[in-house]
Amino acid sequence: MQVADKxxxxxxxxxxxxxxEVLDQSQPDSxxxxxxxxxxxxxxxxxxxxxxxxxxxxxVRVSAEEAYGVRDESMVQVLPRSAFQGVDNIETGMQFQxxxxxxxxxxxxxxxxxxxxxxxxxxxxxxxxxxFDVEITDIRDATAEELDHGHVHGPGGHH
Length: 159
Ligand code: ZN
What we know:
mainly beta; four-stranded antiparallel beta sheet; 2 helices; binds zinc ion
């Protein structure tokens, strides 16, 4: 069986940036399990795994455009401290959910200058090319219910 649309793929992975820094990795007892072709994982990785088989070890480098996008400087804003009512201690690195014209986004506090709080609505990995070292451990057909929901059920899945 090969990785294709409507297949459920299990894999072990390690994610590094161009500096070789490990950003994320799966744990041996909990592989990443996703439904291929449903936008569950970033597009560039999905494309790189297409047609692979269980047991394959794959190295996929994904450009920023096909990962979390290029940085959009218009998503960096300076807000007054009063915009953070109910938060006692604002610190850099804090993340908040915010409404934007494109729906909810996660914003990160990047700079604090007295009452001026700079926030960045870019994904923390925006602008970074990512390298995935992947070992595909299992491939199975998705169930009708999984296809209906657009995500995986059972161990490692949603419900
Ligand atoms: Zn579901």
